[in-house]
Amino acid sequence: MTEAEKALSERVVYAGEKGIKCVPVGRNSKAQFDASDLEQGVSSLEFSGISGYEPTELVITAGAGTAFSEIEHVLREGEQMVGFEAFNRQAATLGGAIACGLCGSARPFRGAVRDFVLGMEVMNGRGQRLRFGGQVIKNVAGYDVSRLYAGSWGTLGIILSVSMRVLPRHQAQITLGIECDIEAAIKRLCEFAAIPLPLSGAAYYEGLLRLRLSGFETAVNAAQRRVGATHLSNEDLFWSSLTDTSHAFFERDQTSIYRLSLPPATPPLDIPGDWLIDWGGALRWLKTEVPQSRWREMVAQAGGTILPWPARREDWLTTGEPSLDGLQTRLREAFDPKDVFS
Amino acid sequence: MPTKAFLAELANKLPEEVLVTRPEAMKPFETDGLTAKREMPGVVALPRCASEVLAILSVCRKHQVPIVARGAGTGLSGGARPIKEGLLLSTSRMSRILSIDPDNRTARVEPGVTNLAVSEAASEHGLYYAPDPSSQLACSIGGNVAENSGGVHCLKYGLTVHNVTGLHVLTIDGERLEFGGARLDSPGYDLLALLNGSEGMLAVIIEAELRLLPIPEHKCVMLAGFSEVAAAARAVSAIVAGGIIPAGLEMMDKLAIHAAEDYAHAGYPLDVEAILLVEIDGSLEEVRHLQGELTRMLGAEGATRLLSASDPEAMERLWRGRKAAFPAMGRLAPDYYCMDGTIPRRKLQKVLAEIQSLARDFGLQVANVFHAGDGNLHPLILYDAANPGELEKAEALGGEILKACVRAGGTVTGEHGVGIEKLDQMCVQFSSDELAQFHALKQAFDADSLMNPGKAVPTLARCAELGGMHVHGGHLPHPELERL
Question: SS3 sequence, chain A?
Answer without folding.
Answer: CCHHHHHHHHHHHHHHHHCCCCEEECCCCCHHHCCCCHHHEEECCCCCCEEEEEHHHCEEEEECCCEHHHHHHHHHHCCEEECCCECCCCCCEHHHHHHHCCECCCHHHHCCHHHHEEEEEEECCCCCEEEEECCCCCCCCCCCHHHHHCCCCCCCCEEEEEEEEEEECCCEEEEEEEECCHHHHHHHHHHHHCCCCCEEEEEEECCEEEEEEEECHHHHHHHHHHHCCEEECCCHHHHHHHHCCCCHHHCCCCCEEEEEECCCCCCCCCCCCEEEEEHHHCEEEEEECCCHHHCHHHHHHCCCEEEEECCCHHHHHCCCCHHHHHHHHHHHHHHCCCCCCC
